[in-house]
Amino acid sequence: MKRIFALILTGMTALLLAGCGQVFNQKQQVKDAAQTTVTSINTELDTLKVINDTTATFPSTLQRALKTNPKEDLRQLDGPVKQLMDKRDKAYTNLNSADTNLVQAQRTLTKAANQSDTTLPKKALAALTSSLKLTTLDHKTLIAYYKEVTHAEQALFDQLQDDPTKADINTALSQINQYYSTLGQQIDVSLANLNTALDQAKTLTKQLD
Fold first, then answer.
1. Could you give the CA distance from residue 15 to residue 13 in angstroms, rounded to a whole number?
2. 182: Cβ–Cβ under 8 A, 6 or more apart, which residues?
3. Tens digits of per-residue pLDDT, 83-103?
4. How many Cβ atoms from other residues are within 10 Å of residue 19's Cβ?
5. Residue 133: what are its φ and ψ, rounded to 5°?
6. Cα–Cα distance measured from residue 72 to residue 77, given in angstroms and rounded to the nearest whole number
7. b/e for 43-78, b at 16 or more Cβ within 10 A?
8. Coil/strand/helix, residue 189
9. Handedness of CA 202, 205, 207, 209 (dihedral sign)
10. CB–CB of 128/37 below 8 Å?
11. Do 40 and 99 contact (CB within 8 A), yes or no?
12. Cβ-contact 102, 41 below 8 angstroms
């Protein structure tokens, strides 16, 4: 009888410890995901600034380069234009890498938000996951605009190889500035929503301590 009782007690203890372990593990997973969110968003904010700044300075950089090397392929020539665009390309790659990490963290947070775990700060979790839905949409839109910008730039470089007039160049730059303006507007939207999500991720992290 004592042996049976001991076995029952051992089983109940094991179940209790397992339950506690699951609660602890989920809480730690959510905390890790929130911290990943903070790190990823900070990276995205930095890279978006680089993309915005390099895009804004591209027209004037190109015009100066054309005065010095009017017959060269400035996208390939190791000079200010190529350096500027390489810097932006690197930022774009880092942006996408950070967004991949952010999406993975979002999945963990969304899964936790949909569970009935009373140990988690549900309001903070819900607020963050809602904001991350917006940042995901923002990123997809941003990528679409960015690709259109690169297509327009390639068309411009192709045109420069056909010995265009100064008027042709000014017209092409005016057209590409319209793409840059649209991209810049989307970057502003992304920055606003990312900063909101960043504050919410920090709040969630504090509440999980």
1. 5
2. 145
3. 999 999 999 999 999 999 999
4. 10
5. -65, -40
6. 7
7. bbbebbebbbebbeebbebbeebbeeeeeeebbeee
8. helix
9. negative
10. yes
11. yes
12. yes
Q: Is the dihedral of CA 159, 162, 163, 166 positive or negative?
A: negative
Amino acid of residue 135: T
Token pair listed for 39: 């790190």
How far is the C-alpha of 182 from the C-alpha of 145, rounded, in Å? Answer: 7
**CA 169 – CA 60 distance, rounded (Å):** 12
133-151: pLDDT as tens digits: 999 999 999 999 999 999 9
Separation of alpha carbons 75 and 62, rounded Å:
10
Sign of CA dihedral 192, 195, 197, 199: negative
DSSP class of residue 114 equals: T
163 — alpha (psi -120 to 50), left (phi > 0) or beta? Answer: left
Please say whether the beta carbons of 31 and 127 come within 8 A.
no
* Rounded to 5°, angle at Cα 197 from 44 and 121: 135
Residues near 144 by beta carbon (within 8 Å), at least 6 away in sequence: none
The low-confidence residues of the chain, meaning pLDDT below 50, are 5-21
Q: Which tokens hold the place of 207?
A: 């509440």
Expressed in angstroms, the distance from the first to the final Cα of the chain is 44
